[in-house]
Known about the structure:
The complex is a heterodimer of chains A (161) and B (801).
Chain A: E1 4-10, E2 13-19, H1 25-32, E3 51-54, E4 57-60, E5 73-75, H2 88-95, H3 105-118, H4 124-130, H5 142-160
Parallel strand pairs in A: 1-5
Antiparallel strand pairs in A: 1-2, 3-4, 3-5
Chain B: H1 5-14, H2 26-29, E1 46-52, E2 58-64, H3 66-70, E3 74-78, H4 80-83, E4 90-92, E5 98-100, E6 106-107, E7 113-119, H5 122-131, E8 133-138, E9 176-183, H6 185-194, E10 197-205, E11 217-223, E12 228-233, H7 238-249, E13 256-259, H8 275-287, E14 291-294, H9 297-303, E15 306-307, E16 310-318, E17 324-334, E18 363-371, E19 378-379, H10 388-406, H11 410-417, E20 426-427, E21 433-434, H12 439-450, H13 452-464, E22 468-477, E23 489-490, E24 493-494, E25 497-503, E26 509-513, H14 522-534, E27 541-545, H15 562-589, E28 596-599, E29 602-605, E30 612-614, H16 615-622, E31 635-640, E32 649-658, E33 665-675, H17 682-701, E34 706-707, E35 713-714, E36 733-736, H18 754-770, H19 785-794
Parallel strand pairs in B: 1-14, 12-13, 15-19, 17-18, 26-27, 33-36
Antiparallel strand pairs in B: 1-7, 2-6, 2-8, 3-7, 4-5, 9-18, 10-16, 11-12, 11-14, 16-17, 20-21, 22-32, 23-24, 25-26, 25-31, 28-29, 29-30, 32-33, 34-35
Amino acid sequence: MKKTAVSFTLNNEQVDVLVEPRELLIHTLREKLSLTGSHIGCETSHCGACTVDMDGISVKSCTILAVQANGSELMTVEGLASDDGLHAVQEGFMQEHGLQCGFCTPGMLMRSYRFLQENPNPTEEEIRVGLSGNLCRCTGYQNIVKSVQYAAEKLQAKEEG
Amino acid sequence: MSTSAESIEREEKLQGVGCSRKRKEDPRFIQGKGNYVDDIKMPGMLCAEIVRSPYAHARIISIDKTEALALPGVHAVLTADDLKPLDLHWMPTLAGDVQAVLADEKVVFQMQEVAVVIANDRYIAADAVQLVKVEYEPLPALVDPHKSMDSDAPVIREDLIGKMDGAHSKRLHDNHIFTWDVGDKESTDQAFEDAEVTVKENMFYHRVHPCPLETCGCLASFDKIEGKLTAYVTSQAPHVVRTVVSMLSGIPESKVRIISPDIGGGFGNKVPIYPGYVTAMVASIVLGRPVKWVESRIENLTTTGFARDWHMEGELAADNEGRIKALRVNVLADHGAFDACADPSKFPAGMFHICTGSYDIPNAYARVDGVYTNKAPGGVAYRCSFRVTEAVYVVERMVDVLAQKLGMDKAEIRLKNFVKPEQFPYPTALGANLDSGDYHTALNKVLDAVDYKELRKEQEEKRANGELMGIGIVTFTEIVGAGPSKSCDILGVGMFDSAEIRVHPTGSALARMGTITQGQAHQTTYAQIIATELGIPSEEIQIEEGDTDTAPYGLGTYGSRTTPVGAAATAVAARKIKAKAAKIAAHLLEVSDDDLEWDVDRFKVKGVPGQEKTMKDIAWAAYNNLPEGMEPGLEAVDYYDPPEYTYPFGAYLCVVDIDKYTGVTKVRRFYALDDCGTRINPMVIEGQIHGGLTEGYAVAMGQELSFDPEGNIEGNSLMDYFLPTAVETPHWETDYTVTPSPHHPLGAKGVAESPHVGSIPTFTAAVVDAFAHLDVTHMNMPHSAYRVWQKCHELGLDKAK
């Protein structure tokens, strides 16, 4: 099948890649670009294990064609930590035991990263609703809520400090 | 043992047993650096996709591969005919039956594997699957297990016609798999005849699926030059897979390397060997290139190991005061088209004999009949501990039914019948030997914590107002840690497990076990055990599992057996090292080892301050300064054959409010007390509990795999299959008591499946209790809004006042 040249910014780096028009973004990220943090947990767009950040919104990359990402700004879990160390959401999940098998974690983290920009000081209810596009089979969500609360507090402190 | 502030500080630094140590696994997972099967790439790797049956039951007339093979990028299309010369078109199952790898003459469940396509990538493979033309002749499908043994029932397994000696018993019908029974039928029948009160209830523990977020997959690579097969597999028992693959392929076990890398959840789904693994391995052997197979969610839900599907008839006999005299259970077990139920080979109904529960029941008898239907194989999965889910469900439901008949309080009847602390070890009427327990303390703690009396009072008031409020109580006893090799084996291999610990010259350590984590934090908790035993900080102890070339042989992780068996092996291996370390310390300090005492991380000469050697000193000496005749190095192995199972227990209480007009059930409160003996890492235990309770909520309140009369599976994707999000999932309250296992080296019991096992009947108990004043004794799961509304409607509760 004929391939199309696609360019985007991925974790702050310019990327050029040749893809078939039918290629899902998740496969481009995982298979062509070897960013295997994002995962696939379903084929009906429910689980959110493939969640990445695209132009400032959380998207399920199993439900986007790579060609649609042309010209966009993408961020995956691999781009969360910076030279300063782990991002607050990563630290939160580790401190509050917000992961077990780790399979939903990259999607959860990318969603939490964006969610806390949408709502920096969320209630428990708002966190639960805000992360409802992401399924987890291990944690029962309770510690994920605590992880996001931890990150929210940490980010707030940083803002104020 | 000194308890000086200084030694307490050293102990804290170890991050050993009992502390909520943060997980060593997390850094890689939170940075997307885990290594799951589908992350792995190999040079020349191809992808496999499976052609599946649209019918539940049909003859295969022909398979035409021509068009698929003509598609550029397609390397092979394999069918049963290609596997026959290798005798691999069928494979053995853990239940002693066989399962078709690729369907030969007919298909026996919908979406069964018919052919496998190997192509350059998964996109081309998916295209090619569409081009494989299979002609079928449909046959009548059998989906109702109650009709399996009818005289005119369609025969599902033509390969077994006339073979009436099954793997577990005589077969009574072509669709009969086994009869298994336990207990004293005569004394039980007599107790029922003599009883003042008897109750009977039918209940269906419906078919559900463990649905791990990562599906099953495999990357097989056969090296033609070395004659070695390496396969990365989503397997909860990689060593067992290696043995089976070796036996089936004829490749020596030393040239089969199975690696379970990071696994995105197992939940029992990843115990069996699936046709996808076998076909990927065969394709790699045939093509001489790595072949990857990763299934979709729909394939996972439809064709891999389901859970439950037991039709149970429970009976209790008691006196008028509510003292239980006898339990009788009769089960019809729907196993699908092949018996691939993952059990120790002598236990076709798993550990169902634990169904006398937490109660001192003098007489009991249970019988289970397994039957074939046109459905996918499975049965044991999804935190069931080998059918303990079903066992706990039936006994807890029956105790409620009895309480209701006698007009007794549901907590009171339990307190009255509990095995008492002084009765342990307690031999049950069905042959379990409960190791330890204090059920009264546990239940009373829960009742106090939730103010049970006040809840019942509120319920009275609500009932008077026509509102539906239910209180569910379950007090369960688990059986985990399979198991003693005299009775427990997997395909002939005793169910021991193992640990190998190696202390390096500079005092850090590498340890490997025969189990395999799928998220339960073994890399953290095993290190904690070794840390406490040897005085090496857990940070400096590297734990590995899952690579059969390097880890000692073990039976894997399922049935909550890691702590009971693997952790026991770890402690024993560490103690072997410590015993050698004591001799080295004595040599270095020039005293007898009787003169030494252990203080956290060092041996001290009794009564001589300052005379001491740390484990670090000893490790170095083990490589250069040893007592005469002692072997250099500091390492040990232990293969632990457990003397008994461990029997953790719990007391769970749930309060629900039901909207009688919509049937929507809201969980107001769920309080879970678990006692798993010594707690290695409370943080990790709590995480296991949260996950298990959430699964229980899903199973009881919405999950279901059902079939229409033609055998079409229904609800087999996330469009319908209920996985709760953070919004639906209730807030969990957890608690504990500590009743150690007397036979376990650490006093620790397994726990991970307890929350699933215990919570499900708790939800049913709460929902049914909401209707108990209307003489409802049982309602089948799932308690979805529609089904609960049906009950409201049947009772006329949804009519406006």
